[in-house]
Amino acid sequence: MADTHAKHHDYHLVNPSPWPALGSVSAFVWAVGLIVWMRSKGGGEGLFGLKGPTLFYIGIGLILLTMFMWWRDVIREAHAGDHTPVVQLHLRYGMLLFIASEVMFFVAWFWAFFDAALFPGAVHSLDITNNGVVEAGKEVIGMVDRNTITGGKWPPIPNEAFHGTFDPWGLPLVNTLILLTSGTTVTWAHHALLENDRKGLVWGLTLTIVLGAIFTACQAFEYMHAGFSFGGNLYGGVFFMATGFHGAHVIIGTIFLTVCLFRALAGHFTPKQHFGFEAAAWYWHFVDVVWLFLFLCIYVWFAGTPAPH
User: Quick one: what percent of the chain has pLDDT higher than 90?
Assistant: First the structure.
């Protein structure tokens, strides 16, 4: 009878947890708040009489709480010995699938950019209704001609909303070198961990975090001096969506690596069990590769006349 509840396998059956349910509710509250906020432009009430912005920030707070508590429990499971080699293998599969989904996410933004870049004079049909209200039996079909937006060229012909592109061999090249260097420092940290070199692990992580922060600061400076804005022109829309989401991933990756640094200082990682660090390193290399494609395609391949400063 003593062996009735003993585990005779390498798998980990997780204990009942409130975090999946709380995460779902948090995402719902966040989505409702965002929708109400955008549709009412700040006014309007959503759930429980709360305004859109209030719901949005409550949802964000609950999502962050869920993430912290859930990942805390995963770390505790690792320390308890639940992450056997089989479990670690499945965690790696999960991380690979997550990165694959992120690849497809960026494929959408590259698709949008190349659709505009390769067909700058395309004409698209558009359903236009009376002030957004569909009247019974009435529908007007309009046409959107990109020639009126881009001048039939890509990058667009400079106008009031678009003054020119970035010089790819200036700050964008520097930022590229910074991010590629951070890829080497995180690899150094990984090899140091495998060799149980704690000092090399800490220094490699620290340098990677610093380089990630410098990249973010340089990109913010670049945005402040852009010759175009997000609205009012097609180039600005696709540029800021693609590079902006990449910048968000750099910030997330920097936070990811910062947590790994604190865990490394606390002695959580061993040469044989360090999936948390490995996942962060994979994510950072993914961010590096995406930026390389962004730099080559958006900044170099379709470089135009630099905007005057």
Answer: 54
Domain of 158, in residue numbers: 150-301
- Of 96, 84, 76, 74, nearest to 12 by C-alpha is 84
The tokens describing 208, both together, are 């990677």
Mean pLDDT of 1-12: 62
Do 168 and 294 have their domain in common? yes
pLDDT tens for 149-193 read 777 788 888 877 788 889 999 999 999 999 999 999 999 999 999
Query: Taking phi first (over 0 means left), then psi (-120 to 50 degrees means alpha), and beta for anything else, what does residue 17 get?
Result: beta
- Res 140 pLDDT > 50: no
* Mean pLDDT calculated for residue range 86-92: 89
The pTM for the full model equals 0.84
- Helix ranges restricted to H, 6-51: 19-40
Query: Percent of the chain having pLDDT more than 70?
Result: 85
CB neighbour list of residue 89: distance below 8 Å, 6 or more residues apart: none
Q: How far apart are CA 37 and CA 30, in angstroms?
A: 10
Looking up tokens 């922060």, which residue turns up? 213
Using CA atoms, how far apart are residues 204 and 208, in angstroms rounded to an integer?
6
Mapped onto helix, strand or coil, the DSSP state of residue 228 is strand
**pLDDT of 134:** 45
Count of structural domains within the chain: 2
Identify whether 110 is part of a domain.
no
Using a 10 angstrom Cβ sphere, with 0-12 exposed, 13-18 middle and 19 or more buried, the burial of residue 276 is buried
Residue 1 neighbours by CB distance under 10 Å: 4
* Secondary structure of 141-195 as H, E, C letters: EEEEECHHHHCCCCCCCCCCCECCECCCCCHHHHHHHHHHHHHHHHHHHHHHHHC
